[in-house]
Design brief:
transport; mainly alpha; Mitochondrial_Carrier; disordered N terminus
Amino acid sequence: MFSVYLYFHQVRGLYCGATPSFVGMAFESSLAFGIYSQTKQLLQGETHNDKPRPLAIVPSAAFAGAVISFILCPSELVKCRMQVQGTDYLVPSSSRYSGPLDCALKTVKTDGLTGIFRGGVATLLRESIGNAVFFSTYEYVRYYMHLPMRNVSTDPSHFIDAGIGIVSGGLGGIACWSAVLPIDVAKTIIQTAADGNHTRNPFRVLESIYRRSGVRGCYTGLGPTIVRAFPANAAAIVTWELAMKILGIKRE
């Protein structure tokens, strides 16, 4: 019985910081796709040409990323701090948090209200650039995969649509994280630094990493991130497109 409890406790440790991450992702997904769609439609205007337009896609995606960064920054700060506290040499037992709310309250008490937004610049850069890369890749892959079916009188089946959504969303996720992972690495270091005077400039952090470990150090965790990026973003795109169909929203 004790061994079962110990196993459960170890498995639960793998999900430290999951709650704020789930909450942040819920707001991120709803806001990001909604702001992107509305802004792109506003910039494109009334048009019957469904070919991707970078002048509408890139600023719309970057704007969506900039907005959601203000929600993601506090939730990811709590998530990152909850995750690193499982190791004694990083966070002593006396300084550990009992939960996400306790982490947020102690951060505000120690560093003030601005403390909860530590890493905000890095988050803003990651989300703006990442969303621009993601939606650009998604739109172009989707367009060219649909291209052979343009002259077909019948609409593609739901299975084909879902397949295109999986490929375009998955490749978009890979492209996104390949572009912004170094910024995310810097953000994590900034948010989990024990020293309150640690620099919050992501470029200085990356410069320090590059001097110590080269380009490889800036891409720490690329493998697991890519493995996660494809299914996660594929699922997000398929869900988004399915929701639009159910709600009767016409995709321009």
